[in-house]
Design brief:
This protein has 148 residues and is mainly α. It has one domain. It contains three helices and four strands. Strands 1-2 form a two-stranded antiparallel ribbon. Strands 3-4 form a two-stranded antiparallel ribbon. Helix 1 packs antiparallel against helix 2 and helix 1 runs antiparallel to helix 3. It is rod-shaped and about 105 Å long. The two termini are 26 Å apart.
Length: 148
């Protein structure tokens, strides 16, 4: 029988079938911690993979949004100028600043509508790794039910 000392408390390990209790439980605890460590590593790996996947998708989306923004600004500038001069040719007595204000207001309304449309489409983008969260919940439930 092996003697163990722990902070002034000395005990002989109780005998169980197959040897000393401490000698039979220690490998089980070590295996439990190895399994837990492997589980945490796998969860982190899954989270990294999901974030990489969603990050690449978000990067493509941002690239397309930037290109559309630049093209839209150029088109809007030309259209605003054309619209302002068109409005002034119709309303010859209106000052140029009033024509710019009216056309600018119309473009502002269109910009708000486009922003609302983009906000609805952005709803599909998931930054939180959903599969990782689901597997973590499953692992926690498994660990709770595994307790003696």
């Amino acid at each position: 029988m092996r003697d163990f000392e722990w902070e002034g408390f000395k005990t002989d390990g109780p005998e169980v079938e197959g040897g000393n209790l401490f000698e039979t439980v220690a490998p089980l605890i070590a295996k439990l911690f190895e399994d837990l460590q492997l589980l945490v590593r796998q969860e982190l790996s899954l989270a990294r993979a999901e974030l990489r996947e969603e990050g690449a998708r978000a990067q493509r989306l941002i690239g397309w949004l930037f290109v559309s923004l630049v093209m839209g600004v150029i088109a809007a500038e030309l259209l605003v100028l054309a619209a302002v001069f068109g409005v002034q040719s119709i309303f010859r007595d209106a000052p140029l600043w009033a024509c710019f204000a009216g056309v600018g207001g119309c473009f502002g309304i269109v910009a708000i509508l486009i922003n609302q449309l983009a906000s609805r489409r952005r709803g599909n983008l998931q930054i939180i790794p959903r599969r990782t969260l689901e597997t973590l919940k499953e692992n926690v439930q498994w660990l709770r039910h595994r307790r003696p």
